Amino acid sequence: MTRDEWTRVQARLHKLGFNPGPIDGLRGRLTVAAVRRFQASRGLVADGIVGPNTMRALFEGQTAPAPASVDAMPWFEEARRLVGTTETPGAASTQTILDWADGLELHYPGDDIPWCGLFVGHCIGATLPDEGLPAAVLRARAWERFGQPCEPQMGAVMVFWRTSLASGNGHVGFYAGEDPGAFLILGGNQSDAVNTVRVGRDRFLGARWPLTSLPPGGETRLVEVGGGLSTNEA
Predict the structure, then answer these.
(1) Which residues does 94 contact at the CB level (< 8 Å), separation at least 6?
(2) For 139-176, how does the pLDDT look when each residue is reduced to its tens digit (9 = 90+)?
(3) Where in this chain does the record put each Peptidoglycan binding-like domain (predicted)?
(4) What is the pLDDT of residue 57?
(5) Which tens digits make up the pLDDT trace of 54-82?
(6) Which is nearest to 207 in space by CA: 176, 164, 162?
(7) Structural domains in the chain?
(8) How are the residues of the chain apportioned to helix, strand and coil, as percentages rounded to the nearest 5?
């Protein structure tokens, strides 16, 4: 869903008496909580996800059509929204990255510590508040035990080894496509930024899907981006 679509959903929730917090087009915790209260009031599954049934109930009787999009992968939309976030060189840290850790109640001294796991944890924790996160969110390979296994597909959490398979080092991000030699990964701490890079298939360890979202079964996307493989993820 676009920011404009979320603004319409928030405005409708507010009009119906379910306070979503600021009407800013952002799918924050207050908005998710308001969606869940609305769903419970209508006898719907109170999962905080604005799927087709929730959308129809929200805009029932309205002359203007409901937003066309649905809230299928909110964590992936949050990841897309954050593209371009970069860490701060030197001793300083980017406040946005520190805020992710605060939102997860994590001790995180600064963005010189690898933050790919923190990025994934923020995207899921901020949009799926009932989803269990790994105990060691910052450890990329701890995400191998997150949620449920799935096939690589749009929005899936993708886990890779880094340095060597035996090192215990890893990288984690979200599936955004693939080509014959690599997966296209939308992730954090990729050359010190949130962006999309090619990660070699030979490093792939597994794909995972949140338990509290709509079930997996989405699309794979073949891309032709060219270029080299990612080598800077820490």
Answers:
(1) 85, 86, 87, 88, 111
(2) 999 999 999 999 999 999 999 999 999 999 999 999 99
(3) 3-58
(4) 95
(5) 999 999 988 877 887 777 788 998 999 99
(6) 176
(7) 3-58 (1.10.101.10), 81-209 (3.90.1720)
(8) 30, 15, 50
